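Hi everyone, sorry if this is the wrong subforum. Our group has a chain we'd like a structural model of before ordering constructs, and none of us has done structure prediction before. Sequence below.
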Amino acid sequence: MKRAASILMALVAGGLLAGVAPGARAAGAATPARQFVSTPCAVPIPGGQDANIHCGWVTVPEDRGQTNGPTIKLAVAVLKATGVHPQADPILYLSGGPGGPSLHGDILAWSADYAAALQQDRDMVFYDQRGTGISEPGLYCNQPPNPLDQMKFHPPGPLRLPSSVSPFILACHDALVAQGINLAAYTSAASAADIVDVMTALGYNQWNLLGVSYGTRLALTAMRDTPRHIRSVILDSAYPLQLNASAEIAHDFEHSLNLLTSGCRADPACHAAYPRQEEDFWDLIARANANPIVVTINDAAGKPFQLPVTGDLLLNGTFVALYSTSLITQLPFIGDRIAHGDVGLLTIVAQQISEAFSGNADGMSLSVNCSEESPFLTEQAVEDGAVGVRPEILHAKIGINDAASLAADQAICAAWGVKRPNPIENE
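Answer:
Right subforum, don't worry. Here is the predicted structure as tokens:
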């Protein structure tokens, strides 16, 4: 999952996902595979980086198991080192997700000032992983006709999977396959192989990896598959291959909430301002589930509609907020304002959250999860993950925590139709 960027992602994350149309099938024959072709930058440029950024494409095989098979195009941007004597090994940034864009997403944080400490000595490389961003093809799903239906299509949590095989998922599958896209070719192992092709096409022989969230899983896969090219790795924050994240996330979320509560209680100013922070938070969740807070926002086409914000959505928004250390200290204040009827704040949040998630490539997310996470889930793991967890969290469907959600998850992946994974993907 991508790191939360603002308060806007703190309260109703996953409530809406403004969809975009599936990307066109790449015609790879025009560019030789594994070569970098420089192009003008057609992406937003981080502040102060205009003179430093270089953009282009690298064409790679869609399926490396096929000889002379289809190719895909990966969009690349390099922030050149600013120092006089830069090191030869760059830093490669790996975005989260799966499915998160880099060139219209995470790179924007790397302004000249923010990147200075690293960019002084090294080039910084960003690229849209296969199936994401402006790389071609993009594994994007059409927006459901009713914006509220997107909550069924994209509920929150690590896997963002619905409670049943939504017709939107089936329609997305059919649309992507009709373009000739091999959904089974969009995996972490394939993306790790892309890293070598991209970096060698750029002229690098060795590099350093900086992975964020799902990007850490991709970094770990690259460490396993192509270690000789890797000088060092930063994992922020580690998502190990063997982790049954969707089964354990509810327990981990409650643990984080408990840390937030104890931290507020131990801080004199926080405790004085919110002496009943824990009790008031759970009371707000119960009240919002019983009587959702209705806000009016615009859909992707600019048409207003009403969104009922339930306690479940508030919990899932809190889940996302905990990804950002800058937001954690604000959560007691945010919860207090909503509890006191600050619908204006919630409206702003709801409006922008519907836009914040519009860039995620949901087909890519499904291909990765159905190839690497879902096949390794067991009933016992799901049952164990729910032991002792507050019923409100289980009700909010954060992760997969009961037999029904496990069965739905398995049905979704059966419908998506990717291959059974190699057991190494869980080791």
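For your construct planning: Strands lie at 36-39, 53-61, 71-79, 91-94, 124-127, 207-212, 230-236, 293-298, 304-309. The CA atoms of residues 274 and 406 lie 38 Å apart.
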